[in-house]
Amino acid sequence: MGTESKRAEVMQNVIDASRMLIAKGICEAFGHVSARLPEADLFVITPKASMDVVEKPDDLVVVNLDGKRVEGKREQPLETWLHTCIYRVRPDIGGIARTHSFTTSVFSILGEDVKPVHDFGAILMRKVAVFQDSHLIENEEIGERLADFIGPEGTAALLRGNGTAVLGKDVIEATIRAIYLEESAILQFRARQIGKPIYFSATEVRERGTQLLESAHILRAWEHYKKSSR
Amino acid sequence: MGTESKRAEVMQNVIDASRMLIAKGICEAFGHVSARLPEADLFVITPKASMDVVEKPDDLVVVNLDGKRVEGKREQPLETWLHTCIYRVRPDIGGIARTHSFTTSVFSILGEDVKPVHDFGAILMRKVAVFQDSHLIENEEIGERLADFIGPEGTAALLRGNGTAVLGKDVIEATIRAIYLEESAILQFRARQIGKPIYFSATEVRERGTQLLESAHILRAWEHYKKSSR
Amino acid sequence: MGTESKRAEVMQNVIDASRMLIAKGICEAFGHVSARLPEADLFVITPKASMDVVEKPDDLVVVNLDGKRVEGKREQPLETWLHTCIYRVRPDIGGIARTHSFTTSVFSILGEDVKPVHDFGAILMRKVAVFQDSHLIENEEIGERLADFIGPEGTAALLRGNGTAVLGKDVIEATIRAIYLEESAILQFRARQIGKPIYFSATEVRERGTQLLESAHILRAWEHYKKSSR
Amino acid sequence: MGTESKRAEVMQNVIDASRMLIAKGICEAFGHVSARLPEADLFVITPKASMDVVEKPDDLVVVNLDGKRVEGKREQPLETWLHTCIYRVRPDIGGIARTHSFTTSVFSILGEDVKPVHDFGAILMRKVAVFQDSHLIENEEIGERLADFIGPEGTAALLRGNGTAVLGKDVIEATIRAIYLEESAILQFRARQIGKPIYFSATEVRERGTQLLESAHILRAWEHYKKSSR
């Protein structure tokens, strides 16, 4: 697929991801979604506004790895540094969802990890820990500390008191992970209300997660949520 | 009723069941529903896609008791074996719903049974236990183990970490059971959050369950949920 | 107001009450609402079907105090005896809502009373206790036992494992009480999840309840829920 | 901006706030919202009816600081004194939302404060305590006691058993605070169900709260909720 149509596809996915995350209640007035573009060292991100204003590629902002806007009439979000610093050190990552999902916030408030208890939660491939600094990720210094906290293989972090940062090989994987991370948190939370959850072992996480991350399963969830968000 | 119109009715019920289960949140992007057809040793099942693509009989897949597709342009689900193996050993069963209902998943994660606490939960006719293997039911060996676990009189099983399999004499009964199994789990869960639920005795389960399983009550619920899912 | 227009008004209120109770999730496929008619010893009730079929007076059933249908083409509910037996011994009662509200069912399952913790819960005027018999109220004997359990001043009862019976001077009061009884149960339930609720004293219940039961407040809630159920 | 167009803008904000608070479930049949008008010593308030009747400026009531209606064909609410007494002693306050948000009511019922656990909760700038008197704020004496309880710097109070009073420099700030106060209560409640929440320190509250109270963030939430309430 040529770069231009690949670019258009990536931008459409970011628009669809925005709509999906709002429809699922993972984001309301705040939060942002980004995706790497085919061109070297550029990514596209939802603007400094509620994601519900995002309807067409014109509404998005193109940013380079110095964190500077290179295209788009809207401003980029305050927390663009969250995305910039991760894309710099993680060539394997092609999409990031920064959400305010509710039950993951409960875990942040407790200072506790979210650990897989079901198949879909296993697509995060490991437990998700709390990045303790409660400041917004609004400058390079804290952006680098967060990327460092997530590490070379991490897929997400809980941000103390204000949501999550979820990573994927593309924005489809990042978005579906964001949705299932919240579901995973809810299941773990509910189970803990009346007993002791049986967590997936490291082997189970690896096997189930890898199996589900095959395009077919992730794409099936993506198509379902895209359809129900219209 | 002639075989052809009976066949059309069964297929329509499977389509309605799909819509109902999504509307009630019992299934989202994953899950499947099947029903035995009037012809010997055949059943119809929702395809390998989100159930929200199911709109007409053409979208369904007809499968035989060797697990092979004999009609339909779509693929059957990976977990068709869940259905095939149950239909083989349970001639009394005419419908199966494989769901991802949320609170039943909480019980799976705790490794605990769901037991009737109210009338509608009694239509499962007994407690529902956890099938501990967390693999998808994607081959004949595990399908047979699950059918064996459910046994000659079982009506459902909780699948560790990923939902339920619910059985009925037809797809109407299986679907309404799936809905009320989730309600039963929620009631039991909520009660346990602040005290000790009073479970129905075996006698109460038998009496209430049998009374409610008369067509009139189950059909009334079916018509209500069909209407509210449009 | 003449008897004929009063009769039409009562019937319309029963239709609106049905819609409201479904919209608020207090009833789904089961449940019934009734109201005394201006004529001596008659009441009108929703039919033996889901309340979502109720659209016009023709859909309702008129029953006398012997429990016999005297008007209407549909059948009366199995549990008409619940209504008949209460109307017989409570001349002050002009409306009854038999619901399946969710959190009140949790209290039934625990065998515990719902007690007022807020203003709106005070309109029940006292705590609401559990009628322990889990049979449907489907004959005169159990109907009389329930009316006796509620007593000469009771406003509601929790029915073990299957919902509530809520009484009012008319169907407007019964319906608004049913809605706020469920809210009261949820508040009490939530508070007990993390601490000890401060219940209203008998004096507070009497004062707040009486104040809110003035037509203006109850009618205001009625109009609001009627509007939001369309 | 001239007084007349400023007046029209304030009235429109009150109408939008009404719609938003109902859409978010913060108010149902009861509750009221007010805002100071540009003219000295006048404020506008939603009428003595469910806020869902509020569609145009004509539906609102203009009241002076003696609590008397000076404009509008509808009656003012019984609890106008809640607003009047606060506006009298708090020249910094330009908007008040009196809500019945659910989880804040749970805290009232427990007699416990709601304390910030996340960024958005920090916009209340401090913990919110319970005003213990369970009477409606329906006369000058209790209105003055409530204003005194809130104090010269308070931003909200929980009203025992029946909701909240939330203050802001204008009705936009009051409304967004009301929404995030409920969210804050839910997070604190959920965390306490399974562990011990980490509350924001006084410094964190001050820093995060001040940062978020800048118009851009509050306006962004306002625009989002206004759009999703249509």
Give the gist of this structure.
With 230 residues, chain A is of the alpha+beta class.
For this entry, give a set of tags.
alpha+beta, 43% helix, globular, homotetramer, 230 residues, 8 strands, 8-stranded mixed β-sheet
Structural notes for this entry:
Chain A has 7 helices and 8 strands; from the N terminus they run αββββαβαβαββααα. With about 230 residues, chain A is α+β, with helices and mostly antiparallel strands. In chain A, strands 4-3-2-1-5-8-7-6 form an 8-stranded mixed β-sheet, sandwiched between helices. In chain A, helix 1 packs parallel to helix 5, helix 3 crosses helix 5 and helix 5 crosses helix 7. Chain A is globular, with a radius of gyration of 17 Å.
Topology, element by element:
Four copies of one chain form a homotetramer.
Chain A lengths: L2 H21 L8 E5 L5 E4 L15 E4 L4 E3 L8 H10 L5 E5 L2 H9 L19 E2 L8 H11 L5 E4 L4 E5 L2 H24 L7 H11 L2 H14 L2
Parallel strand pairs in A: 6-7
Antiparallel strand pairs in A: 1-2, 1-5, 2-3, 3-4, 5-8, 7-8
State the shape of chain A.
globular
DSSP summary, beta strand count of chain A: 8
Alpha carbon gyration radius of chain A? 17 Å
Q: Which sequence of strands runs across the widest sheet of chain A? A: 4-3-2-1-5-8-7-6
Q: Please tally the helical runs of chain A, counting DSSP H or I stretches of 4 or more residues.
A: 7
Helical fraction of chain A: 40-55%
Largest sheet of chain A: 8 strands, mixed
Q: Helix and strand succession of chain A?
A: HEEEEHEHEHEEHHH
Q: Which oligomerization state do the chains in this entry correspond to?
A: homotetramer
Structural class of chain A: alpha+beta
Mean pLDDT of chain A: 93
Largest interface: A-B, 26 and 23 residues
**Cα distance spanning the termini of chain A:** 27 Å
The fraction of residues in strands of chain A falls at 5-15%
In terms of per-residue confidence, which ranges of chain A show pLDDT below 50 for 5 or more consecutive residues? none
